[in-house]
Specification:
The complex is a heterodimer of chains A (142) and B (344).
Chain A: H1 3-15, H2 23-40, H3 44-55, H4 63-81, H5 90-101, E1 125-127
Chain B: H1 2-50, E1 54-61, E2 64-72, E3 78-82, H2 83-86, E4 91-95, E5 101-110, E6 115-119, E7 140-145, E8 153-166, E9 169-179, E10 190-192, E11 198-206, E12 211-216, H3 217-230, E13 236-237, E14 240-249, E15 252-259, H4 264-268, E16 275-279, E17 282-283, H5 289-295, E18 303-309, E19 312-318, E20 321-322, H6 335-340
């Protein structure tokens, strides 16, 4: 049997084939339920993006606005990323070095301790900065 | 159609606002960083430019060795420092930032202002003198001094106020209260404005060094001026006792209470009951204003005292005499000062 004859036979059979009762009545609702099922299986962000993509062309937002926002966002990112870390340099660094290299020495304060020579006989050392500045005038005479 | 146009405008505005919200924090962070960086740069600049003129002062007396800070006020080796360091010293040495030791002479140690003036025979870098009258609350200040046995260091702060007394004791003149941290050994250090000019000298610490009192350069220059003119200090004294009255007269509550017959004030024609309005160029509105006015009086220099007598405003010329509590006290400490600085 040639392929043409096979096809003719199939068409003759199909001519008498009928869908089950109620098929056409339920067709639309069944299609929609299958479509919903298909949609639910997609991630939410994809759904939102599709909705926005569908809506966006209908709004006439100037392209300049999108470009400005993109530029601002890029600028902000660059500024934050390129912010230099604080550095210690110059005299502060020298001080830090001197702190690490110099051994701590006892300090005697003149204002708070009695002034006397040390037991080794070397003169005591006082670093001056009083707590009370001076005056010999009262405010009631001049 | 109109609704859609309005919606479009709203959407555009919202998008732009969103963009600005995104950028604003970053811009603010950058602005703050920029401000901090600028401030740090200025402080570092002042420190780098002036540190060579700031010296460590070492004074040896019979009680031990005292260390403090000081600075060259002119290129001929004149040094301002704290009086408590050199008040009774047998030997004074200044040590430059380069480590060079120079022998110094004490020209004057003034217990009234709390400062001393030294001299070394050398050409030196110097710090220009600024106008301490121009500083105000929150003016930024930089101090350069030698904390304990450490290297010269900057401190940064702002003017917190102006005080005439502290812990119940009156200053000789209004002091600057600076909210900048200080350490022992920095007594006598220069306090600079951000232009690098000396506007004061560190004379006392507050609350363990969290803040400090600074003698304004105008008051320090009075000492130097006396020294230059007379070779000694010449604090003026008029001999007036003043009392506060409840109701101000012509804006002043300072009333002349007593006059000793032999005082310059009595000889000039001042009378008990006169209301003081001005002493020299200093306006008087209360008894405490007399402190500043009297500090700047110079013995022998005539000064006008403006008073209200009844309904009449008078200007009475007075020639102050040498302050009775400063009997030839140049290069010599008073008993009060010796006790104050624990030198006796």
């Amino acid at each position: 049997m040639t392929p043409e004859k096979n096809i003719s036979k199939l068409l003759r059979l199909k001519r008498y084939e009928q869908p089950p009762p109620g098929y056409f009545e339920d067709f639309l609702s069944e299609f929609q339920s299958r479509q919903r099922a298909e949609l639910i299986r997609r991630p939410l962000w994809e759904l939102v993006w599709d909705r926005l993509s569908a809506i966006a062309p209908s709004f006439e937002v100037p392209r300049l606005a999108y470009a400005s926002i993109a530029a601002l966002a890029v600028a902000a990112s660059v500024m934050i990323v390129s912010r230099p870390a604080p550095q210690i340099s110059g005299p502060l660094a020298e001080n830090r070095q001197s702190l690490t290299l110099t051994a701590p020495q006892p300090v005697i304060i003149g204002e708070s301790l009695p002034i006397a020579t040390t037991s080794t006989g070397s003169p005591s050392v006082h670093y001056v900065l009083p707590t009370r500045p001076v005056s010999y005038d009262s405010s009631h005479s001049f | 159609m109109i609704r859609r146009t309005v919606f479009n405008h709203l959407l555009t505005t919202s998008l732009l606002a969103f963009g600005l919200l995104l950028v604003a924090p970053a811009a603010r962070v950058l602005a703050e960083d920029s401000l901090t960086d600028n401030l740090a740069c200025q402080v570092r600049k002042v420190f780098d430019e002036r540190r060579d003129a700031v010296v460590k002062v070492r004074a040896k007396d019979q009680l031990g060795i005292r260390f403090g800070s000081g600075f060259f006020a002119d290129p001929t080796g004149t040094i301002y420092t704290h009086a408590g360091i050199v008040m009774k010293a047998d030997e004074v040495t200044v040590i430059t930032p380069a480590g060079k030791e120079l022998s110094a002479r004490v020209l004057v140690a003034d217990d009234r202002s709390g400062i001393a003036i030294l001299k070394v025979d050398a050409s030196t870098p110097s710090i220009p003198i600024g106008k301490s009258e121009d500083i105000a609350i929150a003016t930024p200040l930089v101090l350069i001094g030698y904390p304990e046995d450490l290297a010269a260091s900057p401190s940064f702060g702002i003017v917190g106020g102006f005080d005439r007394k502290y812990l119940g004791q009156f200053f000789s003149t209004t002091h600057i209260r600076a909210n900048l941290p200080v350490q022992r050994g920095q007594g006598g250090a220069p306090v600079l404005n951000l232009a690098g000019e000396a506007v004061g000298i560190l004379v006392g610490r507050i609350d363990a060094g969290a803040a400090c009192h600074v003698l304004p350069m105008r008051a320090a220059e009075k000492v130097r001026m006396d020294l230059a003119r007379f070779g000694q200090l010449r604090p003026g004294w008029v001999g007036v006792e003043v009392e506060d009255i409840a109701q101000p007269v012509a804006g002043s509550t300072a009333k002349v209470d007593k006059l000793d017959p032999e005082t310059p004030a009595a000889k000039s024609g001042l009378l008990p009951g006169d209301i003081l309005l001005k002493i020299g160029s200093t306006p008087i509105s209360s008894v405490e204003d007399v402190i500043d006015a009297s500090y700047f009086l110079t013995a022998g220099d005539s000064a006008g005292i403006e008073v209200m007598r009844g309904d009449e405003k008078l200007v009475i010329p007075v020639r102050p005499s040498l302050h009775p509590r400063a009997p030839g006290h140049e290069m010599q400490a008073t008993a009060d000062a010796l006790q104050r600085f624990q030198l006796e």
